[in-house]
Amino acid sequence: MKTTYLKCLCAAIALSCLSTAHAQQTGKTDRLRHRSINVELFGPYLLGGISYDARFKKTSPWGFRTGLGFGLAKSGGFFGSSNSTAYSIPIEANYLLGKKRSKLELGLGVNLGLYHDKYEILFPLVSGSLVKASTNHFDAFAFATIGYRYVSKRGFQFRCGITPAVVMTNNRDNGGEVYLAPFFSFGKAF
To answer: What's the CA gap between 166 and 116, in Å, rounded?
Structure first.
């Protein structure tokens, strides 16, 4: 699965380079850009991912964003450890407020994900036996986006902000938990 994730990331970077070359050839460097492809770090994309963002109409402040996210987590203690891998699909409706190149971005969405958890638990009183187990879970969390978006004349896009989120399912014994995570995004608007 990591190979598929890397292939998607490479394809997004290649598409970004091709879009830049096309804009330079045609001379349309200061046009209205209503779509973008971004590499996301943290926020609703967990550890990282790739997203596609578009306006519902070319001049509309209303739009949507979706993509593929990936996450890893590792925790350990005296009697055991756990490793988690997550693959997710965040879906968001958003609104851009502001003029020109700098905008306030407000959004609401849901992240649907598949989580694979591996556990190793040591029972020292039972002759040091080690128990290994793994589980797969579907989880979902609702999130909001509050951030800043900048698009340059040539189409480079930068986004940053915070993502408050609440877990909607109870499959991993964390239903109702609230999280607050920063996010960063770099990409190409076209």
So the answer is: 20
For the record, the structure tokens of 60 come out as 């509309």
Percent of the chain with pLDDT over 70: 73
- The whole-model pTM stands at 0.71
Sheet strands (E) in the chain: 35-42, 48-55, 62-77, 80-97, 102-123, 129-151, 156-167, 178-189
Tokens 């649907």 locate to 112
User: What is the rounded average pLDDT of the residues 147-168?
Assistant: 93
Closest CA to 187 of 8, 10, 37: 37
Task: Check if the beta carbon of residue 68 is closer than 8 Å to that of residue 5.
Answer: yes
Bridge partners (DSSP) of residue 76 are 81
